[in-house]
Design a protein that fits this description.
The complex is a heterodimer of chains A (about 375) and B (about 210). In chain A, strand 5, helix 7 and strand 6 form a beta-alpha-beta unit. Chain A folds into 2 domains: about 240 residues, 3-Layer(aba) Sandwich (Aspartate Aminotransferase, domain 2), CATH 3.40.640.10; about 120 residues, Alpha-Beta Complex (Aspartate Aminotransferase, domain 1). Chain A contains 13 helices and 11 strands. Chain A has about 375 residues and is of the alpha/beta class. In chain A, helix 8 crosses helix 13. Chain B is α+β, with helices and mostly antiparallel strands. Chain B has 2 domains: about 130 residues, Alpha-Beta Complex (Sufe protein. Chain: A), CATH 3.90.1010; about 55 residues, Orthogonal Bundle (Arc Repressor Mutant, subunit A). Chain B has 8 helices and 5 strands. In chain B, the strands form 2 sheets. In chain B, strands 1-2-3 form a 3-stranded antiparallel sheet. Chain B has a two-stranded antiparallel sheet with strand order 4-5. In chain B, helix 4 packs across helix 5. Chain B is globular and about 55 Å long. Classes of the chains: A alpha/beta (about 375), B alpha+beta (about 210). Chains A and B meet through helix 9, helix 10 and helix 12 of A and strand 2, strand 3 and helix 2 of B.
Chain lengths: ~375, ~210
């Protein structure tokens, strides 16, 4: 990436400087494609995972005669789930306001999509199904392959938001058999502000950003060369490390989970115990509020996030936790811990040494906690 | 490692959060009055307990517990320091604005946390009056219906203001009040001005 800082050319220019930049971009594209087993030409660089997801949902809603999206007179309904990232949920809400039919499918207590509800939702008016591969808050992994098969049997296009899954578990677009898939660089230790959208060769498409031939006319705007090169490098490294890193993180997560269970009473783990990304642990503590836990941990140098309303600025706790049927007070008392390549057993030990005291302190102050044994 | 430089809260909030004063830890605390407000479903619950000198009518001690965020902890902690030595009448009129001012400043969406503190204190004072055989001193905070069509009370208008409503339109959006016959519009506008002034010390934008 440091060599790319010195590359001045515009990758869309034909002169030597431009060609040099073009070569770097195409090399990065091959690396990102390699990470998800796609063809390089099936990878479109976009500004973020959110842009990728906005683009996909908007494809079938385009009513314009000027566009070449061949399915615009076909069904354009959207089916997605209650636990998606806001960039899917907000876009769905916006499109619903423009008259596009939208159905949100629920999940069970562990965060898995309700298959019978999904089957009912996939009717004749539906053009696209979007289900996230792994959830960002609770880590639950969906069976995208089985879900895609159900949708394809009814001629419905399939998108998966794999931003949280990519680089943490194997993601193979051929095996999953999806038409669209979103990834983001910063979730795989790449730079922030660059994402990629996989579009299966030959699939109908309509750009969100128009007016340029970049990305084969599918995403206008001068390429973010530096971001793309960093993304490519990150993809190359994740492709190389994944097999080793996955079991290592899983073991750390399990040590953390077990340690918390042993040292702190009245805890509840959220999400699927087995089908989950190896780096995410979401846990609720009875009688302790999430923002307080977050801030006390922050003062000890431990960074977590919370599903509590207090930290979000809104008055509502996590929509994901509520969708799993978690009681509101448990959502308020939840934190999410994320592990990564820089974390070691020593970090887990440090958390396990620090967290019980913080929870005890908060519970001592709490109106909502009574110790079971004196 | 965090450098703690960009805390969303002031140093005083941080101090009270890290070292909360007067937390009720003793299960056998002999309080003269106790008030509990909020609920954990909403994310905040507060309990305030007071000891009162009957002769002088002043608060001699104040303890508390809370289920809540950093500003809930800090605002109840600072409140417990503020009211020691106060007369019951004075303590009854401690406003959320005064608590927030004592802390330096609170983010706007966190003001409702300190509102719970003063409500819990008033509930504790009322409880003291009841226990000490002076029910006539109890000032009930009963909600009054302002919009009869949509059944919206003054408390709900106050909540809407604390939740961010500043204009009449925003108030309508949040509470659906004054959207049917419109008879309550004048009173609602007056209450909107009153609560914005009370909690944020500013006059609302014209509708």
């Amino acid at each position: 990436m440091t060599e790319a800082i010195h590359v001045f050319g515009n990758p869309s220019s034909m002169h030597a400087f431009g060609r040099e930049a073009r070569a770097l971009v195409e090399n990065a594209r091959a690396n990102v494609a390699g990470l998800i087993n796609a063809l390089p030409e099936e990878v479109i660089f976009v500004g973020s995972g959110s842009e990728g997801n906005n683009t996909v949902l908007s494809i079938l809603s385009c009513p314009s005669e000027h566009c070449t999206c061949d399915r615009r007179r076909g069904p354009n309904g959207i089916v997605t789930t209650r636990i998606e990232h806001p960039c899917i949920l907000e876009t769905s809400k916006c499109l619903k306001g423009r008259g596009i039919p939208v159905v949100l499918v629920g999940v069970d207590g562990l965060g898995k999509v309700q298959m019978d509800e999904l089957d009912n939702a996939l009717n004749d008016g539906v053009g696209i199904l979007s289900v996230m591969m792994a959830n960002n808050e609770i880590g639950t992994i969906q069976d995208i392959k089985a879900i895609a098969a159900r949708a394809h049997a009814k001629g419905i296009l399939v998108h998966t938001d794999a931003v949280q899954a990519t680089g943490k578990i194997p993601v193979d677009v051929r095996d999953l058999d999806v038409d669209f898939l979103t990834v983001s660089a910063h979730k795989i230790y790449g730079p922030k502000g660059i994402g990629a959208l996989y579009v299966r060769r030959g699939t109908t498409f309509c750009p969100l950003v128009r007016g340029g031939h970049q990305e084969r006319g599918r995403r206008a705007g001068t390429e973010n060369t530096l971001g793309i090169v960093g993304f490519g490098k990150a993809a190359e490294l994740r492709t190389r490390d994944l097999a080793e890193e996955m079991p290592r993180l899983r073991a750390l997560r399990e040590a953390l989970r077990q340690g918390i269970e042993e040292r702190i009473p009245d805890v509840h783990f959220n999400g699927h115990p087995i089908d989950c990304v190896p780096n995410t642990l979401n846990v609720s503590f009875d009688g302790a509020e999430g923002e307080s836990i977050l801030l006390y941990l922050d003062l000890e140098g431990i960074a977590v996030s919370t599903g509590s309303a207090c930290a979000s600025g809104s008055l509502d706790p996590s929509h994901v936790l509520l969708a799993t049927g978690l009681p509101v007070e448990r959502a308020h008392g939840s934190i999410r811990m994320s592990l990564g390549r820089d974390n070691s057993e020593a970090d887990v030990d440090y958390v396990l040494d620090t967290l019980p005291g913080i929870i005890r302190r908060i519970r001592d102050m709490s109106t909502a906690y009574r110790r079971r044994t004196p | 490692m965090s450098t703690h430089q960009n805390w969303a809260y002031t140093d005083k909030v941080k101090d009270h959060f890290m070292h909360p004063r007067n937390v009720l830890l003793d299960e056998d605390y002999a309080e003269d009055g106790k008030g509990l407000v909020g609920n954990i479903q909403c994310g905040d619950e507060m309990m305030v307990a007071i000891q009162v000198d009957r002769k002088t009518g002043t608060i001699t001690d104040c303890k508390w517990k809370t289920f809540g965020c950093a500003s809930a902890i800090a605002s109840t902690s600072v409140l417990s320091e503020m009211v020691k030595g106060m007369s019951l009448e004075e303590a009854f009129h401690v406003s959320p604005k005064a608590i927030a001012a004592e802390l330096g400043q609170l983010p706007e969406h966190k003001i409702h946390c300190s509102v719970l503190g003063d409500k819990a204190l008033r509930a504790a004072i009322n409880d003291y009056y009841r226990r000490s055989g002076r029910p006539e001193k109890v000032v009930e905070e009963e909600a009054r219906v302002i919009c009869k069509c949509m059944n919206v009370t003054d408390h709900e208008i106050e909540e809407a203001v604390l939740d961010g409503a500043r204009t009449f339109y925003e108030l309508q959006e949040r509470t659906k009040m004054s959207t049917v016959c419109g008879m309550c519009a004048d009173e609602a506008a007056t209450l909107l001005r009153h609560y914005v002034q009370k909690h944020f010390g500013q006059t609302p934008h014209p509708a």
